[in-house]
Amino acid sequence: MGFLFNKIAIVGVGMIGGSLAMAIKKKGIAREILGIDIDRKNLDEAKKSGIIDYALNFKSKTIELQKVRLIIVATPVRSIPRAIEKLSPWLDEGTIITDTGSVKGSVVKDIEDILQKGVFFIGGHPIAGSELSGVKSASGDLFAGAKIILTPTGKNSSPALRKVKEFWTRLGSKVILMKPKEHDRVFAAVSHLPHILAFSLVNTLSELHFNNQNPFKFAGEGFKDFTRIAQSNPSMWHDIVLENKDQILDSMDHFMSTFEKIKSLIEKSEGKKIRKEFSKAQKLRKKLS
Fold first, then answer.
1. With b meaning 16 or more CB within 10 Å and e meaning fewer, what string describes 98-119?
2. Listed residue (119, 84, 114, 117) closest to 99, CA to CA
3. What's the CATH fold of domain 5-178?
4. Coil, strand or helix: which one is 95?
5. Which positions fall inside the Prephenate/arogenate dehydrogenase domain (predicted)?
6. 121 pairs with which residues across the strands?
7. Distance between CA atoms of 148 and 211, rounded to whole angstroms?
């Protein structure tokens, strides 16, 4: 199978961007990869290891994008529209842009407002990653078998959407189409809320005192599993919670209602009802296995 693109540019060569570059090379999707980043160390590491073919500091006054027909922006959510706006003067007609951010509504709208005619943005969100960051954490197999959510709008061209779908399919991902607002409502519940809970639980434990004993010394595997995502990049999650604020607050309200319900059952020693709530959750969770 031949190259899908002659040259792909990846803006943000961290764990996600680096993993994309590795997967693109592994699957033979592009002849060349241009890495763009403000972090010189990340760029040098990616170039040295052969993850990218060319490196460009995003702080440069001139950004050469000759022969680039696909640009993937893998930066924190709030910087995605700004990154694309900076690239705009060098974009050729027919260029396709996609991203890897986990908020779509505000991002898609902001980008479509600034894009020139003939340049297309297809919102993307790969359901893959980890709490780690940096190009040293990249893996060429990260997207194999993973879901990728694409959020096209009426402003997208069918050929551009087909091209992005083919790109992710060749990486081994399962493509799912959603509307931007639907995406944000779903991921506020299944991703953003759990991260907030993990951050909150770790902070709660840090504020408890047991006769000068450090409670973290007694944390078992259950606690470590539950709070693993609290190691995630704070700057990245700062952007996510502010950009998807309304949907996250709605999910938090639903969670707090359920939490208060269980708290009330415990206060009243309602054993049968407590067991019923726990059994319900157990059955639902087993379906994920």
1. bbbbbbbbbbbebbbeebeeeb
2. 84
3. Rossmann fold (3.40.50)
4. coil
5. 6-289
6. 97
7. 48
Q: For 146-202, how does the pLDDT look when each residue is reduced to its tens digit (9 = 90+)? A: 999 999 999 888 999 999 999 999 999 999 999 999 999 999 999 999 999 999 999
Which pair of structure tokens corresponds to residue 164? 């992005």
Which structure tokens are listed for 44?
Answer: 């040098």
Q: Shortest CA distance to 170 belongs to which of 12, 9, 20, 6?
A: 20
At the topology level, CATH places domain 182-286 in: 6-phosphogluconate dehydrogenase C-terminal fold (1.10.3660)
Question: SS3 breakdown of the chain: % helix, strand, coil, rounded to 5?
Answer: 55, 15, 30
Q: What does residue 288 show for φ and ψ, rounded to 5 degrees?
A: -80, -20
The owner of tokens 């943005």 is 121
Looking at residue 63, its pLDDT comes to 86
HEC string of 138-185?
CCCCCCCCCEEEEECCCCCCHHHHHHHHHHHHHCCCEEEECCHHHHHH
**In terms of Cα–Cα distance, which of 86, 78, 81 is closest to 36?**
86
Q: Tell whether pTM > 0.90.
A: yes
In the chain, what are the domain boundaries? 5-178, 182-286
The H helix count followed by the E strand count for the chain is 11, 8
**In whole angstroms, how far apart are CA 47 and each of 13, 16, 37, 56, 282?**
10, 16, 12, 10, 47
CA 106 to CA 188: how far, in whole Å?
14
User: Which residues have C-beta within 8 Å of that of residue 194, sequence separation ≥ 6?
Assistant: 229
Query: Structure tokens of 140?
Result: 């060429």
CA distance 88 to 49: 29
